[in-house]
Prior knowledge:
Blueprint: H1 5-10, E1 13-23, E2 27-29, E3 36-43, E4 46-49, E5 55-58, E6 62-66, E7 72-76, E8 82-91, H2 98-101, E9 107-110, H3 118-129, H4 135-157, H5 164-169, H6 174-182, H7 190-196, H8 201-212, H9 216-233, H10 238-244, H11 250-261, H12 265-282
Antiparallel strand pairs: 1-8, 2-7, 3-6, 3-8, 4-5, 4-7, 6-9
Helix pairs in contact: 3-4, 6-7, 7-8, 9-10
Amino acid sequence: MDRLSTLLSQFGVRASLFHSGKLCGAATYDGADQRGHIHLLQEGRLSLRGPRGADLLLTQPSLIFLPRPSRHQLIPGEPEGARLLCASMAFDGGAGNPLSASLPDLLVLPLDELPLLADTLRWLFSEAAGGHCGREAVLDRLFELLIILLLRHLLDSRELNTGMMAGLADSRLARSLVRMHEAPRHAWSVAELATESNMSRTAYAEHFRSVIGQTPAEYLLSWRISLAQKRLREGRPIALIADEVGYESPSALARAFRRKTGCSPRDWLKSVVDSGRLVEDGA
């Protein structure tokens, strides 16, 4: 059972390298670019001031992952600086998409605790140190691969306790979640989902809510509306979107959309477009 491919086909990740080499002075990121960040500390000492303001001193090669826009600061701890590779990143569908939203604000992991990522990290560092044609394009793609492997690591290690990623890491819930992701048009009942998980209806509903933080019906609604929002951004007609995500008419989708977001699809899309223009104007 592939727990990630359907998610990534809908909400893929894009990365863009912006720093490779020594960091000799403090670098501050305010989140205004509406992108997340991934920093790789290759050597040296580094102080990280995270989104909550606490300082963390890193003394070994480490991965710093901030999946959503957030203010943070990197401060090299030695006169000769720290060697870093840094990329900005964004999941398709905006910062509120279900994959991004299921991840913690900040992850800091020593590289030697990430054996699944080891080959890709070696390739990244080797490519960064070379001068081959297409270097930056290769590094962008390697960062994207690194993020996918990091998601796989989080599922295999069960490091997350709540939310969608925790549910996908749970052997009793994963299959039913994958089925909802693969077939959002289907009118899933709790009984059907419980059967997919080989659990009683009551036990399934209770366990689902304790891990995911939503009822199965609330989760299915959230998933469908996230897909609808992505398709609205892409310019798809609402009648086609309604059919694709499991509603019998555009008006039925609009009612569900308003129940989830508090506004109509048209008003939501206008606010997204307007906020995007503001970001571009600010840049």
